[in-house]
Specification:
The protein contains four helices and no strands. The protein is an all-alpha fold. Helix 2 packs antiparallel against helix 4. The protein is rod-shaped and about 80 Å long.
Length: about 120
């Protein structure tokens, strides 16, 4: 039952070596890291705030006097839109200046440091 001398508990599968397993694990790790960078929460929050900020700012620019009088003389849509734009740009700038840390390089089984 034990065809593999290094791991006597596991039977050997024909056509599927340890190198194949390591290669598959490495590919899955790379895909996971790419997805983590793609769906960074700063990118999502920043993007949404910029989009909504642009919309609300345009509404604030095109507001009539009745809407401004309703807000007691303050163009609330304009100020809120500009604030949202600034917050969104802050998140996107933060993402650009401090990107997610790159993963550590993979260590091959024979490359461990000896003490």
């Amino acid at each position: 039952m034990t065809d593999h001398p290094e791991h006597p508990d596991r039977p050997r599968h024909p056509g599927y070596s340890e190198d194949d397993v390591q290669r598959e694990v490495t590919e899955l790790q790379e895909k996971s890291e790419t997805a983590a960078r793609l769906f960074d929460i700063r990118r999502i929050i920043g993007g949404l705030f910029v989009v909504y900020g642009v919309i609300v700012t345009i509404v604030g620019i095109t507001d009539d006097d009745a809407a401004i009088d309703k807000a007691e003389g303050v163009n609330i849509n304009l100020w809120t839109g500009l604030g949202m734009l600034l917050l969104g740009l802050f998140f996107l700038t933060w993402l650009k200046l401090r990107p997610t840390a790159p993963p550590p390089p993979p260590v091959a089984p024979g490359d461990e440091p000896s003490e």
